Amino acid sequence: MELRQMRYAVAVADELHFGRAAERLLVAQPSLSRQVRDLERDLGVELFERTSRSVKLTPAGVAFVNTARRALSAAESSREAAVAAAAGVRGTVTLGFVASAAIHILPDLVRRHSSARPEVQLALREMTTEEQITALREEVIDVGLSRDLEAQDDLDVRTLLREPLLAVVPTSHPLQHRRTIGIADLVGSAFVTLPRDRVPRAWDRLVVLAHAGGVRLQFAQEANQFATLLALVAAEVGVAVVPASVRALRQEGVHYLRLRDEGAWTDVCATVRKGDTNPTARELQAVLKDRFDSTQ
After folding, report:
1. Which of 2, 120, 198, 234 is 20 to 30 Å from 287 by CA-CA measure?
2. What is the CA radius of gyration of the chain?
3. Which SUPFAM superfamilies match (predicted)?
């Protein structure tokens, strides 16, 4: 049994006339009649009572045509779904994102993506840049929103935004009345940081920044989340260096200072697998790029 035969039977049932059904389908009447006969032979039942004056559905024909309509509708839906998925307008795409990106990038991104591709489900997974590299290679995620990711042989890394780094000090700190400082002004201060094994790139940038400013780093405490890190600064455990977007967390008891040092920045990157044929992944990367292009 073929979909074409179902379509022919449904057309004959609608028209109750083989000639009109053939005209509607743009096929020769003998061909249509032969296909319906072949279908009846395959089924082992007659679908139509034929006389020289009329065509009527048999009880078996009524049951078959009702089911055939649903099958044809399902087949068309399947075709549309496949075409839409191939075009990137339907399906699922999984985004891995660093925690700091969730503060000011993610809300707008989700809205833009939902507007651009309402039939594409966006699955979100918070993970570090290191975790994203592995997840991309293992096809656990389709797109990564990371920080300071360098070029990779098997990954397409695109820089979206260069974000300033800020120093964070408690409001009791001698520098809290300043707006801009150099990293050298923090000499003698202990630092609160995220764990080095989770954010090695952020650590490396801080170390390079401190070395260039002649600062010997002293570490007071690690925190797993930026909210905890800011709370520790407010508690006067130490000072910190964070991306400017972290300021949106609005922690009381802290003061943010712009760092004037060369290299006091962090890149936000969008990454996909090179050669990935999933159009929803490239579409999401394009939405990310458009989001930042429109604000620059």
Report:
1. 198
2. 32
3. Periplasmic binding protein-like II (SSF53850), Winged helix' DNA-binding domain (SSF46785)
